[in-house]
Amino acid sequence: MAFREPNGVFGKPDGVFREPAGTAQMRRLTDTSPEASLLRLEQLAHLMDSAFVVPGLNRRVGLDAVIGLVPIVGDIAGMAIASYIVYEARRLGAPRWLVWRMMANVALDGAVGAVPLAGDLLDAAFKANRRNVTLLRRHLERKGGLRPSEIEGTATRLD
Known about the structure:
Elements: E1 2-4, E2 16-18, H1 23-30, H2 34-50, E3 52-54, E4 59-61, H3 63-67, H4 73-91, H5 96-113, H6 118-126, H7 128-143
Antiparallel strand pairs: 1-2, 3-4
Helix pairs in contact: 2-4, 2-7, 4-5, 4-7, 5-6, 5-7
């Protein structure tokens, strides 16, 4: 984004002033609108649940499955990050029943992930963060606070 000064100030011959590097990204990180918050939560859920592809299996796993391999500390860290998504949902005005459902997903993910090895495999398949962000997105779309990401109905081809 460029701002033009009338007197050609800021040391540029044409008077163009550009934002300092990183200002736009900082604005994006501090934006509290529902759309921006949900976008950040979707990116976090993708990172935690499906950021990497396991070679040979073609299954997607995220940092939650990787840090869950560390006994106790990894599961606690995964639950803390998943709890942040629930906190943001509450901040965005999610009803109490939805927050409880999201907390149940986090608790189930943590309880299953606490079982050594087998729990980590099930933890990689359950993907609680993506489930919670999907629940929040549907709620915000129904409430009217967010534009639908998908259009319901059938498509007809016009040839």
